[in-house]
Amino acid sequence: MSRILLLIPPSGFKDGELEEAKKTLSGGGHKLTIVSDRKSPSLGILWTKENPQAKLSDIKAGEFDALLLIGGPGASYYYKQERAHSVMREFLDGGKPVGAMDLAVSVLARANLLSGRKVACWPLEKKLVESKGATPSGEGVTIDGNLITMMQPSFTTKFLEAFSSKL
Q1: Count of domains forming the chain
Q2: Is the dihedral of CA 7, 13, 15, 16 positive or negative?
Q3: 98-134 per-position pLDDT tens digit
Q4: pLDDT tens across 124-167, in order?
Q5: List of residues 6+ apart from 129 with CB closer than 8 A
Q6: Which residues contact 26 (CB under 8 A, 6 or more apart)?
Q7: Three-class SS of residue 86?
Q8: Which domain holds residue 56?
């Protein structure tokens, strides 16, 4: 099955999104590697502790088949992280599936990786997404080629089905 890289921030990830992704994707037989900018435990918004298996700086995109960006307010940590942007670019340019959950969509926008794309995003992020050349779909989940995006956590199950279909 697929080797999937799950990127979480050092703190402030959406606990439910990560837990449901782990359950659904590992249950589908996929190998998951959780990565963050730090190797120390990451803390979710509901106090879930997650121990990243690797640091982002040690990741080689060629060793993975897909990338999943977990959302939450902590995703903003990656707004200006060039290493994270570089990894995201490698996956997208390589035609590999990239999934972005809720506020993680704005990370892709700030990395200038959404130009010409149709995406699901939080209504408050609509102007940002448009300013980066993307078209907000207004839908809960949007698939545009190898990019799968989600507006908000209530669409997590539907999003993971769409992401899994690309693996």
Answers
A1: 1
A2: negative
A3: 999 999 999 999 999 999 999 999 999 999 999 999 9
A4: 999 999 999 999 999 999 999 999 999 999 999 999 999 999 99
A5: 105, 106, 109, 114, 119, 121, 135, 136
A6: 32
A7: helix
A8: 3-165
Domain with residue 29: its CATH number is 3.40.50.880
CB 108 within 8 A of CB 118: no
Rounded CA-CA distance 78/85 in Å is 8
Per-residue pLDDT band for 32 (boundaries 50, 70, 90) equals very high
CB of 8 within 8 A of CB of 50?
yes
Number of residues that make up the chain = 167
Tell me which DSSP letter residue 120 carries.
-
